[in-house]
């Protein structure tokens, strides 16, 4: 999983490099998609490094070690939010390609595409924030008396 995630991030750097000099709405959408996939790969990389951190530096998993909660939350945010936005942008690219095939001279407006992506992102940000609120409130119920704060920091 780590290799495929990081190869995705590295290959998207080439996509950014190729499309950054081109003009047009399709190039713009591919740039957005590549940046989102790079952020997703970076979030997954941080998660995987945090999981193997004690194995690398301490020679094994010691008693009472667990991955800090903030690492899980970053991974959750990266996966849920950016994955959904990535899928949505792929749908927009598919629709725009279909429009270009059916009507070759139709101009797709970049501002409207960006507005649609922004609205969709805000909707998913609200969903993820509500979900994170309920997850953290459930964890505070299960770990009372300040133990939640230690779990967020990764302390035993």
Question: Can you characterise this structure?
Answer:
The protein is mainly α and 156 residues long. The protein has five helices and no strands. α1 packs antiparallel against α2 (25-57), α2 packs antiparallel against α3 and α3 packs antiparallel against α4. The radius of gyration is 20 Å and the shape is elongated. The two termini are 28 Å apart.
Topology:
Elements: H1 2-19, H2 25-57, H3 69-102, H4 110-142, H5 147-153
Helix pairs in contact: 1-2, 2-3, 3-4
Give the gist of this structure.
This protein is an all-alpha fold and 156 residues long. It has helices spanning 2-19, 25-57, 69-102, 110-142, 147-153.
Shape: elongated
Tally of DSSP helical segments:
5
Taken in chain order, the helices and strands follow as HHHHH
Helicity range? over 70%
Average pLDDT, rounded to a whole number, is 76
Structural class, from secondary structure content? mainly alpha
Give the amount of beta strand, in percent.
under 5%
Radius of gyration: 20 Å
Count of DSSP strands: 0
Poorly predicted residue ranges: none
Termini separation: 28 Å
Strand count, sense and barrel status of the largest sheet are:
none
């Amino acid at each position: 999983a780590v290799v495929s995630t990081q190869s995705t991030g590295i290959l998207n750097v080439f996509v950014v490099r190729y499309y950054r000099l081109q003009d047009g709405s399709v190039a713009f959408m591919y740039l957005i998609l590549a940046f989102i996939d790079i952020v997703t790969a970076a979030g997954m990389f941080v998660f995987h490094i945090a999981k193997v951190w004690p194995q690398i530096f301490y020679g094994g998993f010691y008693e009472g070690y667990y991955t800090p909660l903030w690492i899980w939350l970053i991974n959750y945010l990266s996966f849920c939010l950016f994955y959904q936005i990535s899928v949505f942008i792929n749908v927009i690219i598919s629709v725009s390609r279909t429009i270009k095939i059916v009507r070759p001279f139709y101009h797709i407006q970049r501002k409207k595409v960006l507005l649609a992506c922004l609205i969709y992102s805000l909707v998913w940000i609200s969903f993820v924030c509500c979900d994170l609120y309920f997850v953290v409130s459930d964890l505070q119920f299960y770990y009372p008396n300040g133990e939640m704060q230690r779990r967020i920091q990764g302390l035993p």
